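Task 17 of the worksheet. Students: predict the tertiary structure of the chain below and write it out as structure tokens. Keep your answer in the requested format; marks are given for formatting as well as content.
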Amino acid sequence: MARKRKIPLRICVGCRTKRPKQDLIRLVRTPQGELRLDPGGKISGRGAYICRQKTCFEKALKGKRLEKNLEHPLSEEVIAEITALLESEDDHTS
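Model answer:
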């Protein structure tokens, strides 16, 4: 009988719901203090996850939840990069 693989779950910083890790976007603060998007989920550092929905990202920004989880302020470039990613995904689903 085949074993069922465990699907790793993570909590979205915006809406606070548990979702499979692969359905979320990971933002990571590297040990050098740099903030980056982590599409593969393999970069070492402190990570925060967010749903692929613009409303979740807006909630996380408004409450400064991403900054609190990453223990680092967000730069305008990172915000623009995430916004562009979310908008491009909206275009693909429409």
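Marker's comment: DSSP finds three helices and five strands in the chain. The chain has one domain: 9-93.
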